[in-house]
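Escalation from tier 1.

The customer reports that the assembly of two entities below gives different structure tokens on two consecutive runs. Tier 1 could not reproduce it. I'm attaching the input and our single run for tier 2 to review.
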Amino acid sequence: MGKVIVVTSGKGGVGKTTSTANLGTALALLGKTVVVVDADVGLRNLDIVMGLESRIVYTSMDVIEKQCELSKALVKDRRVDGLTLLAASQKNNKDDIQPEQMKTICDKLRSEHDFVLIDSPAGIERGFSNASAGADEAIVVTTPDVSAIRDADRIIGLLQHAGIEPINLVLNRFSPELVGNGSMMDQEDVLDILNIDLIGIVPEDTGVITSTNRGIPLVYEDASPGSQAYMRIARRLTGQRIPIPDLEQKGLLTNIVNWFRNR
Amino acid sequence: MANSNVALRAYRDGLHLIIRPHLSITEVEEAIQEEISRMNQPLGGASVQIDLKGPTLKPEEMAYLKSKLQETYNLKVRGIDTVDEQVPPPIAAAPTTHTLPQRTVPQQPRDTDPSRIIPYTIRSGQIEDFPQGSLVIYGDVNSGGEVRAGGDIVVLGALRGNAHAGLNNRPSAVIIAMELVPVQLQIGSFINRGPMNQKPRGYPEIARVGVEDVIIIEKFVKF
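Tier 1 run:
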């Protein structure tokens, strides 16, 4: 019996789809059976980021309309064992699916996989309620800026209201240099506001753009800092205890002050 | 609560002692005593400008007050300014929307209000509404969240969103928070924006309607 985890954020463009693709691939690389589900009906993207867009024949809509079996709609990723994608329909819109229908799909997938990751659309409307309908747990992705944090706060309130627990936070596009010179919120500020558990910090990594365009998730490359961060989060999801490294790079002045203070 | 009959304010040109109209000399004396004892700093040797809002004290009372300030508090009066705002006497006319309730209007006692305890954080998009009395929040009120109470609002955390105390037009209500960095505050019919880009000060603060009919924020020491 696996876990259904919804990856959500409220605000768009903070890295939900990138996080879903990378965490799904990373979990498969760790030997788990994983299905990533695109819940963004009408605006699907997960297939592109995963590099599987050319192989989609059936979508979750076809499963709901009983056009095909669920197992037939799952697209197998040939680069790694145990990873499949359930795509969203591009020609329908979010109101064509009911939360109960998503829940039925999630329940079936849960019984056959270790992890079911659901890529939620932005917003708090039907798309979000469909995406979270069958979820046991949630991962909230945010960037360290005030508008993303306010939206994440809203989403956390809704998830708590729906009884989804635990809710873990991924702090994405974190820039140690900007925190060091005081122009970005640090992790303590973010956690102070959102007050949920941090499961990982993903540093700003331009490799994400190229990997998205090529359809090869970052975690296939070992060296990139973003890839390492996603691998660590995947290990934490499997229950391993891995400390969150201190990514903050203190400014020169702070370092000098600390040096004097520590003497 | 700090009395609002007189207020000691530091302006660019020095200290100002603002006195409300229609008070007796004993009321003014008591209020000054209270206001000065509330300040935690010695004021000796400072000079002060007295601002009278409308008809207040007779000339001989004024002279008495000057000597009293000099002798008791070592405060030198550098000038007296009368800002005659044509405030009608309290009995002759109902107070306009922009005056504080006069002393003749009985203040509603706080201890008869019911209060509600909210044992969680108010997140963005959530509203906590309690027109019957006061709200106490064991958590934060985040940006995008809102708390509304007929009486006072006490946040035992950070107030980062909107708060409206004294819903039923009660300007005597106050808002207290361990970290007061709101988007917007309302007390009764008075409204004020929060401080822009304000870092938390590290001590609790209180917001209330001050003498000049604006919401003021100061360090919260005690009620």
